[in-house]
Each structure stands twice: as C-alpha cells, then as structure tokens.
Amino acid sequence: MKLDIPFQFEADTVEITTKKMDFAAFCRLYQDRERFLPYCRECSNYGTVWSCPPLPFDTGEYFRPYEKILVFCARITLDPAVIERADTPELVKKTGYEIVIRVKKRLEDYLRELEARFPQSRSLSSGGCNRCCRCARAKGESCRKPDVMRYSLDAFGFDLTAITKDLFGYDIEWCRDRLPAHFTLIHALLLPAAVSSRFAFYK
Q1: CA atoms of 139 and 116, how far apart (whole Å)
Q2: Which domain holds residue 137?
Q3: Rounded alpha-carbon distances, angstroms, from residue 203 to 41, 138, 149, 169, 174
Q4: Position 39 pLDDT exceeds 80
Q5: Taking Cα atoms as reference points, which of 101, 94, 112 lies closest to residue 9?
Q6: CA distances (Å), 51 to each of 33, 75, 104, 149, in order?
Q7: What whole-number distance in Å separates Cα of residue 147 and Cα of residue 96?
Q8: What is the pLDDT of residues 123-180, one digit of tens each?
Q9: Rounded to two decimals, what is the model's pTM?
Q10: Measured between alpha carbons, how far is 125 from 131 in angstroms, rounded to an integer?
Q11: pLDDT, tens digit, for every residue of 88-128?
Q12: Number of domains in the chain
C-alpha cells in the first residue's frame, strides 16, 4: 500500500510503501542475529549509541506483546543534477548523509505520530539514532531523548536487504564512488493484538 505522505525535498522525492504481516513470521524469515550482529560490532556505533547493540534488555521480552508488524519502505529518488554535483568522495558522503537523514527523521516523526494515536504500538527505525550530536551512551550516561530515540531494525539482527527485496521488490543501492539513483530506508511499527485490527486497511 502506498501512503500519501508529503515527503518531497528540493533534491529528491520519496515514495512510501507499506506491508503488514504476522510479526512471528517476519522474525522467522528475516531475523538472523548470529549472522548480522557481528557486523554491528565492527561499526563505531556499537556500544556508543543507545539505539544500537548491545541492547540493554532481553529482546524476546521486548517483542513479546506484538502480533503484527507494519513495515515502511521509503524509496528516495535522487535528482540527477544532485548526483552529478557530488563529484568528490567527500561530497558523495556528505550529500548522501544529508538526504538520508532528513527523510529518516521525517519518517521517524510520522511513526511517532502513529504511536500517539495507537498507544500500545512501537516504532523501529533504520540505522543508528541521529537525534543528538553525540550520544550520551559514549559517556556512560542515560539517553537524553528517550521519548524520541527508537531502536533500529538492524540492532535486532534483521536482514534489511532481504526485507527490501522480498516485500517491496527493490535492490538496495549502495553509496560508493558516486551517489546511487535511489536510497531505500526500512522502518516499522510493531502492533499488539489490541490495535492490529485497526490497521486492516494496510496490506
């Protein structure tokens, strides 16, 4: 299902598509902690950002209340002129980061609005939290913005590449020596049985 969300910026346009499925089936198909969490250990966010591993709770207990998952795919189409202007490694990195982060934050805000409408639901983001210049976890301190910070799908060992391909039919394009034609972000909303029926219009 496509959502009519006004995600449009000067340098790119964004199409939001959703898929709803049983959360237990989603975990069976796409969660592989032993395979993917070792990659997290190689990232600078590991142990220094609260949204990222190691997570300070039992993940099985965290997921226990939820029956369904509503997966959001944000497909960002970059303006060809923006791609051409990013003609150095530094500009590729800077431009790609700025485009992804502004869409990521906008989608996180939208999902928190859904949480407010359906209080027992809980959203998951993509990648590490970017709401502070430097996460308090690096200093051994509590999260400064627990009402804003959301854990990432990556942090639970979900295969984002497979999710993107299987559920939405896209291959993730990576940012290497030049900007790709598209960026893809995967976010989600976890739904307990008490509210999942209210999302029946999602497919």
Answers
A1: 31
A2: 2-199
A3: 35, 40, 27, 15, 28
A4: yes
A5: 101
A6: 16, 23, 14, 7
A7: 27
A8: 999 988 999 989 999 999 999 999 999 999 999 999 999 999 999 999 999 888 899 9
A9: 0.89
A10: 12
A11: 999 999 999 999 999 999 999 999 999 998 889 999 999 88
A12: 1
The Cα–Cα gap between 150 and 80 comes to 32
Three-state secondary structure of the chain: CEECCCCEECCEEEEEEEEEEEHHHHHHHHECHHHHHHHHHCCCCCCCCCCCCCCCCCHHHHHCCEEEEEEEEEEEEECHHHHHHCCCHHHHHHHHHHHHHHHHHHHHHHHHHHHHHCCCCEEEECCCCCCCCCCHHHHCCCCCCCCCCCCECHHHCECHHHHHHHHHCCCCCCCCCCCCCEEEEEEEEEEEHHHHHHHCCCC
Q: Which two tokens stand for residue 157?
A: 């060992």
Structure tokens at 174: 């990576």
The answer to whether residues 136 and 144 touch, using CB atoms and an 8 Å cutoff, is yes
CA–CA distance, 137 with 57 (Å, rounded to integer): 15
